[in-house]
Amino acid sequence: MRTDLAVIGAGPAGLAGALAAHARGVRVTLVDAAPAPGGQFHRQPASGLRAARPQALHHQWRTWTRLHAALAASTVRLLTDHHVWCVERVSDGRADGFVVHALLGPEQERSVELHATALLLATGGYETVLPFPGWTLPGVVTAGGAQAMLKAGLVVPGRTAVVAGTGPLLLPVATALAAAGVSVAAVVESTGPRRLARYGGALAGKLPEAAGYAVRLLRHRVPCLARHTVLRAHGDDRVTGVTVAALDAQGRVRPRTERFLPCHTLAVSHGMLPHTDLATTLGCRLDGTAVAVDDQQRTDVPGVWAAGEATGTGGASLALAEGHLAGRSVAARLHGTPYTPAPAAVAARARLRRAADALHRACTPPAHWTDQVTDGTVVCRCEEVTAGEVREALGLGAGDLRSVKLLTRAGMGWCQGRICGPAVAGLTGCRLTPPRRPFAQPVPLGVLAAQHRHEPRAEPTPPPAEEGPS
Amino acid sequence: MNPLELARARPGPAFTVEFDGRRVPALPGRTVAAVLWEAGVTSWRSTRRGGRPRGVFCGIGVCFDCLVTVNDRPGQRACLVPARPGDVIRTQEGTGHAD
Ligand SMILES: Cc1cc2nc3c(=O)[nH]c(=O)nc-3n(C[C@H](O)[C@H](O)[C@H](O)COP(=O)(O)OP(=O)(O)OC[C@H]3O[C@@H](n4cnc5c(N)ncnc54)[C@H](O)[C@@H]3O)c2cc1C
Ligand code: FES
């Protein structure tokens, strides 16, 4: 398969980018691992469930219907169930380009290739959860994970839930769970109103949205415990309740404020991290934990653009604006015409980035969260490495995440340190640096062996036969 | 109100899958994880080292906590794999391989 622009990720950023480039005459292929487009924010119920009113669980439904209709009316080629595990830069003598390797889902045993002249990385992100005693119990899930299961599967994890952590995801998730019939015992947010007020100016635009959620939570009688944190989750084979406590202004637990809340589910989130694996294998520069881009959403690797959560957390509207600008820039570059930014999108991007930045600084986890992490608490969920083992490694002189990993195996498991990275960084005081992962996801050995067999005859690359569904 | 009613879902006929020897109803389109959640099951793996129960954590294919054995294939992410009629789902012990 060959295309002008391969967009990886069909969330708000990828959809906006694909449509903007397509509208300017670019041949676009939009690739996503999920069975349907939408990404996290516009995740749709599985088609087999035949939901007549999916909007009951959604916000900004009109945006989705507009994107969906535009996609349906376009000739953008949509490849769903395609899990991209690697992207390579290739040169066939005439022009530089890229080969996108994707495993076909859900079996993920066969890999297909897509050749593209330009690439837009719109891979979104995943949630950060910091550890606390009991966080590995079944029934403790990420807030976004509960939301994703609800939106796609129309299913909830239990009859009563506590939603906890910090950040803008807590309110929508609590609202959605409550609407779906879950009794939400409390929203536990470690940031207090005063801290939020400090960033009032930049956050003003977000207020109506937050107020909307607050009203709905009041209607469902969901209490919000601001400047509170979860100390531990209780239970034997599944969570049966949580102990929460109040925090002082320094982020320390206030003595004698502990209380027990019974629940079947604890939905927890401490923020988001961008998916950067495809970008780093291409050699794109990162800015902290996000893909670095310029004002046209270009990475520093020619031919590669990035937009949305992959370039930093900021929500669906920001992802749309960035994706749109990226699509325009790609079209200008491929046609050799000047780049004409859309003033409205440029303004929206600037405003929403300011708001995201303010939220990011206001909604940090409690300063002393590591105090609650007992030595017996599992930190690396895959390899079952405890906080005690991580602290011991620090005592042995480990000075960065890589050495801690080599000494303890934390981060060596299936998730490749995506989940435990922030926790290990916090416990050891090391900087959180996304490790270089050769592949964005596990690849069957048979697929890798087949790639090797191709290699000797790969220069110059012959156009491959069309493979897989299109 | 439950989520199916809220979204006015009119799913096709339910089918059955087997989970650890018992029959569990499943709706078309749902993932293995969603089918098990609906049946009140929250764990379907025991860890290699501590033998501790695990189920869904991230819900989007990132954490690999939800690994399960489906039709004798271990290591499937229950949050991604759709349930199909007649699936035989088993709790995954450790890696799911006899080692
Ligand atoms: C689990 C979760 C739930 C969330 N729920 C909400 C919510 O309810 N409300 C809210 O305001 N915000 C929510 N967010 C925040 C959300 O990420 C943003 O609001 C918005 O969706 C970002 O848009 P995006 O286009 O940058 O990325 P996303 O919407 O995340 O889209 C990225 C897409 O890329 C695909 N992708 C990633 N890597 C690959 C790969 N290697 N191969 C193929 N495809 C790939 C993914 O399948 C996904 O569809 C959630 C985030 C997460 C992680
Ligand atoms: S729950 Fe994280 S991979 Fe399935």
From TrEMBL, chain A:
Protein keywords: Oxidoreductase
InterPro entries assigned to the protein according to its UniProt record, in alphabetical order: BFD-like_2Fe2S-bd_dom (IPR007419), BFD-like_2Fe2S-bd_dom_sf (IPR041854), FAD/NAD-bd_sf (IPR036188), FAD/NAD-binding_dom (IPR023753), Metab_Enz_Cyan_OpOx_G3PDH (IPR051691), Opine_Oxase_asu/HCN_bsu (IPR017224)
Top-level lineage group: Bacteria
Residue ranges constituting the FAD/NAD(P)-binding domain according to the UniProt record: 4-313
Coiled coil (UniProt feature): none
Domain called BFD-like [2Fe-2S]-binding: residue spans: 378-425
Record carries keyword Oxidoreductase: yes
Regions of compositional bias (Pro residues) in chain numbering: 459-470
Region of interest: Disordered: 448-470
Protein name as annotated: FAD-dependent oxidoreductase
Taxonomic path: Bacteria, Bacillati, Actinomycetota, Actinomycetes, Kitasatosporales
UniProtKB/TrEMBL annotation, chain B:
One Pfam entry name: Fer2_4
Key words, A-Z: Oxidoreductase
UniProt-listed InterPro entries: 2Fe-2S-bd_N (IPR042204), 2Fe-2S_ferredoxin-like_sf (IPR036010)
Name under which the protein is recorded: (2Fe-2S)-binding protein
